[in-house]
UniProtKB/TrEMBL annotation, chains A, B:
<keyword id="KW-0238">DNA-binding</keyword>
<dbReference type="Pfam" id="PF00440">
    <property type="entry name" value="TetR_N"/>
</dbReference>
<dbReference type="InterPro" id="IPR001647">
    <property type="entry name" value="HTH_TetR"/>
</dbReference>
<dbReference type="Pfam" id="PF17754">
    <property type="entry name" value="TetR_C_14"/>
</dbReference>
<dbReference type="InterPro" id="IPR009057">
    <property type="entry name" value="Homeodomain-like_sf"/>
</dbReference>
<dbReference type="InterPro" id="IPR023772">
    <property type="entry name" value="DNA-bd_HTH_TetR-type_CS"/>
</dbReference>
<dbReference type="InterPro" id="IPR050109">
    <property type="entry name" value="HTH-type_TetR-like_transc_reg"/>
</dbReference>
<protein>
    <submittedName>
        <fullName>TetR/AcrR family transcriptional regulator</fullName>
    </submittedName>
</protein>
<feature type="DNA-binding region" description="H-T-H motif">
    <location>
        <begin position="37"/>
        <end position="56"/>
    </location>
</feature>
<feature type="domain" description="HTH tetR-type">
    <location>
        <begin position="14"/>
        <end position="74"/>
    </location>
</feature>
<dbReference type="InterPro" id="IPR041347">
    <property type="entry name" value="MftR_C"/>
</dbReference>
Amino acid sequence: MSEAREVNGAQKKAPMREVLAEAAFQLFLERGFERTTVDDIVARAGVGRRSFFRYFPSKEDAVFPDHESCLADMTAFLEAASDESDAVDVVCDAACLVLRVYSTNPEFSVQRYKLTREVPGLRTYELSVVRRYERMLAGYLRQRWVEATDGSLRAEVVAASVVAAHNNGLRSWLRSGGEGDAEDAVDRALRLVRRTWGEGGDGAAAPEPQQEDVVVMVATKGAPMWRVIQRVESALRDG
Amino acid sequence: MSEAREVNGAQKKAPMREVLAEAAFQLFLERGFERTTVDDIVARAGVGRRSFFRYFPSKEDAVFPDHESCLADMTAFLEAASDESDAVDVVCDAACLVLRVYSTNPEFSVQRYKLTREVPGLRTYELSVVRRYERMLAGYLRQRWVEATDGSLRAEVVAASVVAAHNNGLRSWLRSGGEGDAEDAVDRALRLVRRTWGEGGDGAAAPEPQQEDVVVMVATKGAPMWRVIQRVESALRDG
DNA sequence: CAACGTATGGCACTCAGTTCCCTCTGTAAA
DNA sequence: TTTACAGAGGGAACTGAGTGCCATACGTTG
């Protein structure tokens, strides 16, 4: 709203980056993203056009001003994670960390969500951002599972699952207009992933590499059922 | 290479779309994507600048000239899919359908892969394409699972898993330079997803359709016996 | 005061993508 | 044959994002 903030009675200049992001977001809400030019933004912010591109590499970046720092936070979180804990839990927690950035400013997040939903350019941009999170999670899992068979494959699939579940929970919260508890929604969604892929899952989910625990049975059609069952039983018993 | 093809002794004009796509791809390989302007492309193709944008909405589209039709194929496939078959199997098969487009032109696919890997703009574009496949798969699963609890969540997570596994297999094949069997690589990757999310969720997999009288059954240790038997029975019955 | 690094403004340029309008060509009706 | 029409392609001019280059202003340190 105002370009300067009152702090202890002294005028303190708001950082240009925030001034620009705020001016841009206002205009995007008023006229739409595509109907707003960079010249419009810098005019409202009262700065030169060149300054915009000094702080944001593209017009789209002004819509997600905090994603770089969020990515950095996630990097730090994963680097600090203990190798003792379940790897799936770690990446789920890392995803929740992103969520917190959203849930801190519900109104802003909801408005941005609406904007992003209806502007193809912003959807694409968001995709590329989300992809970076996913790659980071996959990288962490891959490193944790270097020894496991198909570790790389599992890492990518689990990372994709975590991101999908996180986004599902997040979007359901955003669609509700930011009412209710975002962490709850995402936690509930991630529970499915934790249960399915987590190392400490209940009996349904196999721990570690499946190769060892998989039994392949070949039978011919027409074979007597009792013989089939007999073989299945013995296979499952002592593998 | 040539703008006209000899057919039955008569000159037949190659369709402009292909002429443009080929000219564009050649130039992208020679000078790189960003160092090639649309003017360069139309100059080589010997057509007017305006024509390029008649056939491709953006420069990026010229790199993926067949994705729209591939998407249409997938739509048709999903619409024609039987409600009897395992929903997860259906979407896995739909993913393999995309793979076929790649494996039909290995050299082209490998060159494009290298190009896409090193041009950020193309990576982002590809992401938006892949996202459309994912949404389509998720839509199919959601519709199949309307009754299930958390059906929507499961649909999105499974779709993301399928896409991640597919891409893992595809990329490993592309990195190998197009040697070996792409279908094999992707099948192996998708096996993890089928096993984990298939409706015989505790491990039973559908029989191989190819062989007439041999049934292969995969089960995990610890799976409840009744489910295994149920699965065997149905496999032997209508396999 | 001078010298220097940093933050910002201004200008001109490239290039993607769009708008509007033109020509050419083949076809069907009069 | 002439006319009318439709559809494919060509082309000029425009908008707007993003970049490169240089000038200017300000604060710091010598």
